[in-house]
């Protein structure tokens, strides 16, 4: 589900946002709708070593990294204004008003620098002049953070946050050191500044998200505090006004075994002191979190596939649920549905009328490419990659707020390449392992997807009721799996027995192949236990359901 992000006005004719594309063929820049023509004045980079690219927040500059260094171009002319010759740079970050560009590269300990070489550098965006350098050993959360007016800048230093004023980096003016800080985020908006800190707990103790008003950083001075367990890392999402934040806590591993993607919980904090845990009505990972441009609602996409999308208000109350479609949020009216299979990326254009979907590596290495859509559901442009190329990233050019004026929402599809993609595309067949191809298969593509369960009448079921429910679910899942397995040529044997370990010349690929093969071997053993009549746990049955997905991944790795 997405809303149409509109600006708040604009007197001149709106510009056309460009699209930057990064992949194994380098970096390219093209105009957005309606021309889609390459930007001829952009100095195209064909290097396979382009590690990152970024538009500055106001869209004034575009920067990218390759094996030579960093290049900065002025978007008004697409001419280079600075080249920073540091070949080991691998990450970049613009300041909020585009004045500065921060870069990170690995730090090395030497005899003259036992603390490590200076590896975090801040440069002037307009000419590449060096402003200051720091030692920042860890790449995780390395980025300096500026307030919206750039008067305040923060930097994570070990487990403390150092705060600088007026971009004078010779000495910090305040330090957050009341507890160990693993991540912090400065809210959007001008003074008074607000800073949200993630403070990990010791084993057996809770972690905390604490919201402070600068420069009051004692524990008792926190405007809001939210405790939670099970967090290896957090992601922070502010709405544009900077008075409300969502904190997503994630674990790398789901100890219940229900998910390969770890486990996430979502928490809400506000500068008024309100806190809450966002209650989601479907089990599974959180895929995306986004505030609406009006700052009064946020959308969460979550759950095992098929995922669910829910719109919440700032009281964390669910106010609307649906699948991933295009809606007129103000009138709660469906505009269009689109079919964009294998999408790993979706991003709105700043014009509020178009969005891009893409299939990118390394999430998916086959069928890479991107498409541009109109919000009425029409596909207006597509650019597929061939199988020898990889697409890594697609981003729209940024623009200042209020650049694009709002337009009335239309329900009539504009002319596109395919006026109704969901009807004109050929239906996809279920993936079949090599041993099952060419045979009559009777199961359907979505046989393994359970219908949404109805909410329980009991809000607090007893232990006995939970046990009975668990047994019912296990028996049901076992019956489904036995039914599906018996349809392939009348055999219940695992398809993994026909897969050979085909190693490649790529050590990284070989590691992935061995990992996938190990999971398939586990599934094979579980299926044998199922065949012998053993009662399996829900998470074990869920693992078996992943077999086709793993077989497909193995086939792609060994191509």
UniProtKB/TrEMBL annotation:
Q: Which GO terms describe its cellular component?
A: cytosolic small ribosomal subunit
**By its UniProt entry, which InterPro entries does this protein fall under?**
TIF2A (IPR011387), TIF_beta_prop-like (IPR013979), WD40/YVTN_repeat-like_dom_sf (IPR015943)
Question: Which superkingdom does the taxonomy of this entry point to?
Answer: Eukaryota
UniProt biased composition (Polar residues): 487-499
Function of the protein: Functions in the early steps of protein synthesis of a small number of specific mRNAs. Acts by directing the binding of methionyl-tRNAi to 40S ribosomal subunits. In contrast to the eIF-2 complex, it binds methionyl-tRNAi to 40S subunits in a codon-dependent manner, whereas the eIF-2 complex binds methionyl-tRNAi to 40S subunits in a GTP-dependent manner.
Q: Does the keyword Protein biosynthesis apply?
A: yes
Q: Which organism is it from?
A: Camponotus floridanus (Florida carpenter ant)
Q: Among its keywords, does the record have tRNA processing?
A: no
- Coiled-coil ranges per UniProt: none
Designated name of the protein: Eukaryotic translation initiation factor 2A
Taxonomy of origin reads: Eukaryota, Metazoa, Ecdysozoa, Arthropoda, Hexapoda
Chain segments annotated as transmembrane: none
Task: Identify the residues that the record assigns to the Translation initiation factor beta propellor-like domain, covering every copy.
Answer: 226-320
């Amino acid at each position: 589900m997405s809303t149409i992000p509109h600006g708040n006005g604009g007197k001149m004719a709106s510009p056309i946002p460009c699209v930057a594309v990064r992949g194994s063929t380098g970096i390219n820049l093209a105009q957005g709708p309606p021309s889609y023509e390459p930007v001829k004045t952009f100095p195209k980079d064909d290097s396979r070593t382009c590690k990152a690219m970024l538009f500055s927040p106001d869209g004034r500059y575009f920067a990218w990294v390759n094996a030579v260094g960093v290049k900065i171009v002025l978007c008004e002319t697409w001419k280079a204004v600075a080249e920073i010759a540091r070949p080991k740079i691998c990450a970049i970050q613009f300041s909020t008003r585009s004045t500065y560009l921060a870069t990170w590269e690995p730090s090395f300990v030497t005899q003259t620098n036992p603390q490590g070489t200076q590896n975090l550098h801040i440069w002037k965006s307009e000419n590449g002049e060096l402003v200051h350098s720091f030692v920042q050993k860890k790449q995780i959360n390395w980025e300096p953070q500026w307030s919206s007016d750039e008067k305040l800048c923060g930097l994570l230093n070990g487990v403390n946050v150092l705060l600088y004023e007026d971009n004078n980096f010779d000495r910090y003016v305040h330090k957050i050191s009341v507890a160990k800080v693993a991540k912090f985020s400065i809210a959007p908006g001008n003074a008074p500044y607000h800073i949200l800190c993630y403070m990990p707990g010791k084993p057996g103790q809770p972690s905390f998200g604490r919201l402070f008003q600068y420069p009051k950083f004692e524990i008792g001075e926190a405007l809001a505090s939210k405790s939670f367990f099970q967090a290896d890392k957090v992601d922070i999402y502010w709405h544009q006004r900077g008075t409300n934040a969502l904190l997503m806590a994630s674990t790398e591993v789901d100890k219940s075994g229900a998910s390969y993607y770890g486990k996430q919980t979502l928490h809400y904090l506000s500068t008024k002191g309100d806190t809450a845990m966002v209650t989601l009505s479907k089990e599974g990972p959180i895929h995306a979190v986004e505030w609406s441009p009006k700052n009064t609602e946020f959308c969460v996409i979550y759950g095992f596939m098929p995922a669910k999308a829910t719109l919440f208000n700032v009281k964390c109350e669910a106010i609307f649920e649906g699948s991933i479609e295009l809606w007129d949020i103000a009138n709660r009216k469906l505009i269009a549905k689109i079919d964009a299979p294998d999408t790993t990326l979706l991003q709105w254009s700043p014009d509020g009328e178009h969005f891009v979907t893409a299939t990118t590596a390394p999430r998916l290495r086959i069928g890479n490419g991107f498409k541009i859509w109109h919000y009425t559901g029409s596909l207006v442009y597509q650019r597929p990659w061939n199988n020898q190329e990889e697409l890594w990233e697609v981003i729209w050019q940024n623009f200042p707020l209020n650049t694009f004026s709002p337009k009335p929402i239309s329900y009539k599809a504009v002319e596109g390449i395919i006026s109704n993609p969901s009807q004109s595309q050929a239906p996809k067949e279920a993936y079949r392992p090599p041993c099952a191809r060419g045979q009559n298969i009777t199961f359907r593509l979505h046989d393994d997807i359970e219908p949404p369960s109805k909410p329980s009448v009991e809000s607090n079921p007893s232990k006995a009721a939970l046990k009975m429910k668990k047994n019912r679910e296990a028996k049901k899942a076992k019956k489904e799996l036995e039914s599906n397995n018996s349809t392939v040529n009348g055999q219940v044997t695992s398809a993994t027995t026909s897969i050979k370990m085909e190693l490649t010349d790529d050590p990284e690929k070989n590691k992935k192949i061995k990992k996938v093969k190990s999971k398939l071997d586990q599934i094979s053993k579980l299926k044998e236990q199922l065949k012998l009549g053993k009662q399996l746990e829900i998470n074990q049955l869920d693992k078996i359901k992943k077999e086709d997905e793993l077989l497909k991944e193995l086939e792609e790795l060994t191509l």
